[in-house]
Amino acid sequence: MFNLFKKKKEENKRGDQYLSLKVREVVKETPDTVTIYFEQPEPFLEYRPGQYLTVILELGGKEVRRSYSLCTSPYVDPHPGITIKRVEGGLVSNYLNDQIRPGKTIEIMKPLGHFTTDFHSKNKNHFVMIAGGSGITPIMGISKSILINEPDSKVTLIYCSRSEDQIIFRNQLEKLQDEYKERFKVFHNLSKPSLNWEGMKGRLDQVKIDEILQNNLYPGTAKTKYFVCGPNGLMDIALEALKAKGISDEDIFKESFYTDIEAKEETLKAEGKLSPELTREIEVNVNGESFHFEVPAGMTILEAGLDRDIDMPYSCQSGLCTACRGKLVSGKVDMIEDAGLSQSEIAEGYILCCSSKPASSDIKIIIE
Ligand code: FES
């Protein structure tokens, strides 16, 4: 009774975008990767394939947040699941790999993210997916959703892993290939395979990508869309290869899990692209409530807001997940990392508070 009361109070304090989910099952995908499946809450968790959840934990007396992509499809999987690969020395990924058991409750922020697509049973598209390591996670949810919702669309997946035992979802992918023989093809590329491996090996490069795509043309498809997710090196190779083929940006969807925001800031500074760092008074409106506060020189807008205990949404704190997205309605900011935003969002004035510093005195941001 006491716990129920406490839980309700916490949920109210956090607001609508927060939720507690009960762990239903933990599946070991590879030696260093698990998928955590949750019981469906009431009402059911709404999400789009490819989105992510932000996990909020209290570790070592501090609140920590990390985003993990959903590997499931709301169209086929009864229970939502996120996949977590261990990061060496990573506080949260190791905790989730080692300490989470069925029955445990985890606080999350509701699904976010734009790495997804619209599905329609009449579509006749070809989807080319290029994934590396745990970058397969959102691509798994999107691919399953295409196969079930679009009977005339095809999916070609190029999936890079280190070795055979590092292939996440290997069995699931085999089953899907059996089930959708004419519409789903998977090409594994292993950087360090065993001697028995007969598939592609070494680094993925433009030649391999070209060869696969040339041999997998689907004449009946109206449009080809490209989804890329994985480590930066792989993403750079894939994006360059697609660019060299003349594929337009609007047909390429990408999601990055990694960035070095400090190095980026140094580069921008050296190029003279950042405004002088000054303490500025700004206004931030969070879900209809206005706050006026100072952002000390050198701090991001999110850091200053959290220091004042303002409940600003956030997750990755590195410009990738968009949980901290707000609309700049007046003033100017220096946004160090904008990888999470699309070009049209930037043109509409959206900024990421975790990677933005004030560059003028009349700043007003609306977060909803
Ligand atoms: S918190 Fe993830 S982009 Fe700002």
From TrEMBL:
Gene3D superfamilies: 3.10.20.30, Nucleotide-binding domain of ferredoxin-NADP reductase (FNR) module, Translation factors
Top-level taxon of origin: Bacteria
Residues of the 2Fe-2S ferredoxin-type domain: 280-368
Name the UniProt record assigns to this protein: Ring-1,2-phenylacetyl-CoA epoxidase subunit PaaE
Keywords from the named record: 2Fe-2S, FAD, Flavoprotein, Iron, Iron-sulfur, Metal-binding, Oxidoreductase
GO molecular function, one term: oxidoreductase activity
Cofactor(s) this protein requires: FAD
Pfam families: FAD_binding_6 (PF00970), Fer2 (PF00111), NAD_binding_1 (PF00175)
FAD-binding FR-type domain boundaries: 16-118
